[in-house]
Design a protein that fits this description.
The chain has about 400 residues and is α+β, with helices and mostly antiparallel strands. The protein has eleven helices and six strands. Strands 1-2-3-4-5-6 form a six-stranded antiparallel sheet. The chain is elongated, with a radius of gyration of 29 Å.
Length: about 400
């Protein structure tokens, strides 16, 4: 059976849906220059304050080579470009639609039956594209570039960062309090003065896991036995302490196997901070932190992970807010639009700082602490859009 080919009319209708209208192309062309200007301006300001001055100080005080300084500068640039994407979206939409309003172009479009919602559709499409670009930067480029910049700087200053934490390995494990299940009390504390990548040295372990029986373990070294899932301690002493503070037993050993968590080894093997991790790496770090039971630290990492999801969607919020403010009847210059953008950006990040702090102390859930500024911005943008559509 032969399938009939689409009629010429249907082909023309399909092609029409795939093509941008003249209005969409015009608005997109007008949005692009201020967006690129914003990326350049905000990135330049951010990297000058956050990296350039520090690199200049390193050049003058520590003798950092100019070529290495330039390399570190370029590696740090993606982090500031990502931060500039949402701000540039706000600036571009506000400047473009404010100019349309000042030049009565929006009045002309409304006169031929174009609604306000249809006018700002290109701005929302741009915001969604920038959201995807921001997510890709945050996952694939920025963490690796930040880590490479830190390694390059440390190597240049002859303080190479090893692939593990060399000194002061500290790990705390918590458990519900005996008198109040909603509170926490220390279950176990692990400390090692030094780690050479295989063995811990200069260890002190405080163990409060058994009711009425506290133990103190002191040893010269310890290694993790992967086959037995235990720690092999060497040349140490175990002190068993009664609740009244008296010693019950003192055991000296040359070798001793103890079933303690492997978490200190995993933590010592990681030297990245949250800005040098993508979502998958941060999630792995969160699983390690969960084993310790420190709720404040767990909440902090949960917030960081949620913020990695939430940050790209700030572009949509800023695009909606900027275009909704821009279409209001007004006569504002580009300088005024830039000033208003700075005020909105400052207010948003101030709110983010407050909700982050509230999340870390437990006043807000990690999910709400990370997403509340974005949700509030979205509600404000929708309100402004409805107001402009009247």
């Amino acid at each position: 059976m032969v399938t009939p080919s689409p009629s010429p009319l249907r082909r023309r209708q399909s092609a029409r849906w795939l093509r941008l209208s003249v209005m969409d192309r015009y608005i997109s062309n007008e949005l692009t220059p201020p967006f690129l200007f914003g990326v350049g301006a905000f990135s330049s300001i951010g990297i000058s304050i956050g990296a350039l001055f520090e690199l200049i100080r390193r050049i003058t005080e520590s003798g950092l080579a100019l070529t290495l300084a330039a390399q570190i500068f370029l590696l740090k640039l993606p982090a500031f470009i990502v931060l500039a994407f949402p701000m540039s979206t706000l600036l571009a939409t506000m400047m473009t639609y404010s100019r349309f309003s000042s030049d009565s172009e929006l009045v002309a479009l409304q006169g031929v039956g174009v609604s306000v919602r249809r006018m700002i559709a290109p701005a929302l499409v741009l915001s969604l594209l920038v959201t995807g670009l921001t997510f890709l930067f945050n996952e694939l480029i920025t963490p690796a570039a930040n880590y490479r910049a830190a390694i390059t700087l440390e190597q240049a200053l002859h303080s190479d960062r090893p692939p593990f934490q060399e000194r002061n390995i500290f790990y705390q494990e918590f458990q519900p309090a005996t008198d109040d299940p909603t509170a926490q009390e220390l279950k176990r504390q692990f400390y090692a003065r030094r780690f050479d990548g295989t063995a811990m040295h200069g260890l002190t372990i405080l163990d409060f896991s058994q009711a009425g029986l506290n133990q103190v373990v002191s040893a010269e070294s310890a290694t993790w036995d992967f086959s037995q899932n235990t720690w092999n301690f060497a040349n140490g002493t175990i002190y068993v302490v009664a609740p009244d503070g008296s010693f019950r037993h003192i055991v000296t050993f040359q070798t001793q196997q103890l079933k303690l968590p492997r978490t200190p080894l995993d933590l010592a093997s990681r030297t990245k901070d949250d800005t040098e991790m993508n979502i998958a790496e941060a999630s792995q770090q969160l699983e390690l932190v969960r084993q310790g039971g420190d709720q404040k630290l767990i909440r902090r990492w949960q917030i960081r992970i949620q913020q990695k999801y939430a940050l790209p969607f700030v572009c949509v919020v800023f695009g909606l807010v900027g275009s909704s403010i821009g279409v209001l009847p007004q006569r504002t210059s580009r300088a005024t639009s830039f000033g208003i953008s700075i005020v909105i950006i400052f207010g948003y990040y101030l709110l983010s700082f407050i909700t982050n702090a509230m999340g870390e102390v437990g006043a807000l859930s990690p999910l709400l602490a990370a997403w509340l500024p974005t949700l509030m911005g979205l509600l404000v943008g929708l309100y402004l859009l409805l107001r402009a559509s009247r």
